[in-house]
Amino acid sequence: MEKLNIVSFRNRPYHVDCVQWNEDGQLALCLDAHVHIITPLIVGLNSKEDSYKHIGFSKPAPEPELKATVIANGDDVQTSFLNEEGYRCANWSQTGLSVSQSCLLVVVTTKHRVLLYQGSTKNPLDNDWQLFVNITDKIKEAAIDHNYATKINPHHTLYAQWSKKIIVTPMASKPCLLALTNKAGDLCFWNLTSTTVEHLDTITPHKSFVNLVQWSNWKKGVEPNTYLAFTVSSSTNGTVALSSVLVKISVDEHLITTVEDILVSVIHMWFEEGSAVTTLIKVQDDFEQEASHLRIALSKGINVSFISLTVDGNAVHLEKEWVSYCLQHSGLGLAGGSWLSDFDFRCYTMEGEGMQFHFSAEDMLVLDEKEQAIISTKLVQKYKYQWMEEQAKTEEDDIISASDALPYIFGACDSLKHMYTAVFFTMRPTVDVHYRVESLEEANLTFILQKPRASEIYSLLKDIDTYVNNPNFCNFHFILVFLKPVKGLIREILDYLIEDDNILPIKMWYEKLVECMASGPTLVGNQDLTKSIYCESSTIASRIILNAELEMKNYRLIAYESEFTQICAAAKEKTTTHFLFYIFYFALQLPDERFGQFSSDDRNVLLLLCDYALYLGINQLREQCMDIYMKLQEKCKMDLYPEIAYCSSPDGPFSLVSREKCHVCDEPVSAIGDSNLAQCAAGHFWELCSITRKVLYSPHTRKCSNCGSKSLQPSNDNSLTDIILNHCCRCIYCGGSLLKT
């Protein structure tokens, strides 16, 4: 990724910290005229694909122009309405919240509209971003009155930030709150639903414009079914407020999680005596530990300030003071930063300097000069390269005699595992008079590799062991598939491990996954079919491999290609075998009378799946197939002697039998090998359901958001087919979300 060609733009951001990664490995770059969504891709030297995808989206039609009126009071002037509408900020939610099961992007415009965008609901693979909802009018309706003087239109939104997801159980829906700030000093809390957002509560921690807000993670509250999070907000009058958000949660029988009640309160206010405006807030916590802490980093003018607060139950201990560091080489403050751990904070000044601080458990603040030198060296290399590129493109008459420039950083953000940093910067010539107007200066997006390649390989191998084998993770695949951002993590790890001249790191990573994939079924007897299908330790590894194969579709591991192809084939076979084993096991545990009551569709599904297992030559499923054939023959009066005989003594490859009729000409339909395609005797082609192997004759299907495989939609008739489809709520191959088409 660090070798990715620098992407150039001709706009400036409204705020610093304008670059944001999401959990799917995408970047949002919020500039004053456009919001750009950039997805770095893994491509090889011989690939014709671009090394990144770059898209944007359009704003909805603007509101009607205001009629010309005489303004007698200067406080009533709204300068934002005198210019063309641009963008103030754009922030990502966590993944899995949109209809397409990806991230939502909340955007605040310079005319104070609040717009929510999501990926395509029909085909998430085409990167088409669409407006999900415009909540500007709802915000005005939910505005509250104030007992102090405010500016005109105090409800106007200035900033927006998503909370983390509230996770009650892995399978239940995961609500998320949206915090909005406004001119009056309010924090407005909204709850995300399947179709819109609903107002929950509003508090007023400040008495002036609230320019920033950040969330902590959620932790369990003291009372049952309650969850607690904290917000840190700042105002243009210099104050910083800590507020608590306590919600009461319920989960119904359909695993729908509802926010029943909310209690929001201001805990403490800092810097009331007056100080510089806060331009950056970053929050870190360790709420998963018994003795938990909330750590806050602020940029206020030329000072970077830190504080660590102890959280005990629902209470926060406020006896500690801020610890500050005065920036020696900056007059503008920080442009971006990220917590690397509970104690380390990496940041970048607007003047282009990289820094790293260690804020110890004893509240000692130390500038890590060694790391600072490493970061600054990498930045200087990027600056020099970019300035040479700009000089090479400049016409000869305009070249500056003193060929030198200074960098200015507008935003910087770390990737999920902090292996890469995206930096948005510009180069300005060090002369009194610019040889071109500032609006024509290019700003550039580049990437920095923070950790030397292969240095983290053993840590990544240890992570695989943790994911797969550690019982304390309680079937980590529930967490990996249903909670964790799989796509973004795998994309970052692969980009880090792949080297054209060193195949060893990626080879070691795949070999570790193959080792973890070797175990057999361990969840026999589990009553939860969904858990059995998705939580087997060995399939964690196989689905990671299949996701990695999708990410590497434009990259050839030339020195490892044959082994890689075999590994991917083995992973798909493992996942298929595992899925069929538990479907057969579930069916065989049903009472005998239930078998006799199967509909023709249910019988067909069992036959299709058994035929598929025998065709693939999966020997460990042959005994289960024979039991199902015998049970169907006995209870449903079916003639299945050829299938039973083949299971007893297989002789050569199994010949697939036509179990369905063509919906066009009524001719028999047969699957084409092990693919998800079928053809009738008259030549009509059909797609097959990846779960039941039935013909997809209806346009109302489900499609995997990751690999594109299709399946039937559940019909809610409590048949065996419906039970299987309901329990297979994710793609059985890669674990991607299944979206209705």
TrEMBL record:
InterPro entries, sorted: GTF3C4, TFIIIC_delta_N, TFIIIC_Znf
Gene Ontology cellular-component terms listed: transcription factor TFIIIC complex
Example GO BP: transcription initiation at RNA polymerase III promoter
Domain Transcription factor IIIC 90kDa subunit N-terminal: 21-449
Residue runs in coiled coils: none
Short name of any one Pfam family annotated for the protein: zf-TFIIIC
Gene Ontology molecular functions: histone acetyltransferase activity
Protein name, entry field: Transcription factor IIIC 90kDa subunit N-terminal domain-containing protein
Annotated organism of origin: Thamnidium elegans
